[in-house]
Amino acid sequence: MHDGGRARDGGRVRDERVRTGHLPERRRRVSASPAGIRVLVVEDDPVAADAHALYVRRVPGFTVSGTARSMAAARRHLDHHPVDLVLLDLFLPDGHGLQLVRTLRAAGHTADIVAVTSARDLAMVREGVSLGVVQYVLKPFTFATLRDRLTRYAAFRATTGEASGQDEVDRTIAALRAPRPAALPKGLTAATLRAVTDVLRAAEGGLTATGTAAGVGISRITARRYLEHLVASGRAVRAPQYGQVGRPELRYRWSDSDPV
Asked: Which CATH code is given to the segment(s) 190-254?
């Protein structure tokens, strides 16, 4: 075949690869750039997408490659831009996120996946793990939660070379696992803590123990115990509220360093 025929055939092969999603090997696996681990945020809610992208940018060592509002947009981005990690909402307008993962794997894309979902379906979790989902983040989540997941992912990704033994293999896998939450102080329950947390987050100007008690339906003393626990764990801040006769009452606010 003469050179012109080879050129035309080569063009058809390239077009077929782009059409089917079968990209050349050099596009399939890329190393993290000097600027950091490149993240594609896939989320159909524009407010949530912007918030998640902001969270990613705040974590040292990570950059936002782009945002996508659908499976189709995510595929287009991945076909034309290097991505190391996909922060993937599982419920998208044009399909389920795990179907996107299957499509990407079939096309040779090897970007790691952190799944974001409000569903607590363990069968779905197991399926995601089998497809290579490295982390799950349950909605709603705070910046601190995502920062922890991304930091653990970065540590996992940084491991290179061969393991010296089983212990090193176990440590590498454990790097992706979030630690178990610390036990609550005696007398506090997880359900009430969630209720207090939700009420405090929703209060733009903060709340006193009295206001929190009214919002949750517990006593002021009990509300104060939970609020003080949030302060001690760095999730809330407190300041005296002046302007009233007598001893000033403390006002609690959700911490700016751990936003909604």
From this structure: 1.10.10.10
